[in-house]
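U., I forgot to send this yesterday:
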Amino acid sequence: MIKSELIAALAAENPHLTQKDVERVVSVILESVAQALEDGGRVELRGFGAFSVRSRPARPGRNPKTGEPVDVQAKHVPFFKSGKELRARLNAE
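Result:
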């Protein structure tokens, strides 16, 4: 599902809201999640999962085209851990 499909689904479930209102709500939510992660925080959505930031240390790497060694810088990456309820829904038979 992409962002526009999410907006369309929410607008269909909430006919009293305009498409623009739903678009604004989705944008605010996603921006709030991104800002919290940017600030080093954690975002937990009960039953769905938790978003956090993990640090990856600097390491030696290789250029796949030439095989030359290169230094890969340390970086922060987003991490998602699914919630118990979501895992149960995915594994239900």
